[in-house]
Hints:
Blueprint (H helix, E strand, L loop, with lengths): L2 H4 L2 E2 L5 E5 L2 E5 L4 E5 L4 E5 L3 E6 L4 H22 L2 E8 L4 E6 L2 E5 L6 E4 L4 E7 L2 E6 L2 H14 L9 E4 L14
Amino acid sequence: MSRIGRSPIPVPEGVTVALDDRTVTVTGPQGSLARRLPPGISVTQGDGVLDVARSDDEREQRALHGLARSLVANMVTGVTQGFSKELEIVGVGYRASARSPQEIELALGFSHPVVVDAPHGVSFEVPTPTRIVVRGIDKELVGQVAADIRKIRKPEPYKGKGVRYAGERVLRKAGKAAK
């Protein structure tokens, strides 16, 4: 069996889980999330824990077992604590400013500022002009929004300028060799 898939998911106080056919809905203090599970994967609710099981030992079912357990565990964590992803901006004149919690404006060396709108369930925070925090309850959506912002101006390998994840190490290349 999958080591990840067979471990139970603890359900904290204040979180309710609704199981309907193959749809799992988790509601907590931060909000509500729903996900449809793949065929052959089932979730059962015990006293304070959720168990994820698979129908058989086929290769595809084994692969989906741990994935489904991780997705449901991320839903429980999201509605209780939420998720955040930090981005750093490196470069002279590169900066971010918050228009609102749902919209940021980025100056990244283009001829015009780039405006990024947050999808529903995601908010932005700009503690300093060179730091962006993406927050939300859906881990997948928070990561995708952060990746989309990074994609606007990836860190380049010569000077390291661009948008990077906090703590990301950019491999630097040597420039031209002088004669």
